[in-house]
Design a protein that fits this description.
5 helices; two-stranded antiparallel sheet; alpha+beta; 15% strand; single chain
Length: 142
């Protein structure tokens, strides 16, 4: 008796939803976004609400100041020695074309004790990694 079985690793990975950008990756990326929300700096909600998924896998907080918030330190104008100045509409601006330099001052975050720099790694350390793993396992079983 001869038995022939046609097994394709690529097809298996795709059927399980494990391919890049597949069902499991989408679950993982969406869980990262959801679980990170309490950790993302929040003043008026702009940064929390600007997150998008790029390349089907990457959660990106895409506002111009997001990298400053991620780093957690104050950058300032090297001549004026300030981070910015308040304008009439209540917002903040910086001089155009000026490359800010880092200081040794830390940013202050409000609206929740979890909010602060490098929100994804902190969320993962605070139990998020286990929750994401559990959700990924559920997605594979579907």
């Amino acid at each position: 008796m001869k038995v022939k079985y046609d097994f394709s690793v690529k097809r298996c990975i795709k059927n399980l939803g494990l391919d890049e950008g597949g069902r499991v990756q989408q679950v993982v990326t969406n869980e990262v976004i959801t679980l990170s929300e309490p950790y993302v700096p929040f003043a008026e909600g702009d940064l929390v609400n600007c997150v998008r998924i790029e390349n089907g896998t990457d959660a990106v907080w895409g506002l111009p100041y997001a990298h400053y918030m991620w780093g957690g330190i104050v950058f300032e104008d090297p001549i004026l020695h300030c981070a910015g100045f308040q304008v009439e509409d209540g917002g903040w601006r910086s001089r155009k074309g000026v490359q800010k330099v880092p200081t040794n001052r830390k940013l202050e975050y409000r609206n929740g004790s979890l909010r602060g720099p490098q929100w994804v790694p902190r969320m993962l350390q605070d139990g998020g990694a286990k929750k994401i793993e559990d959700e990924a396992r559920k997605a594979v079983r579907k």
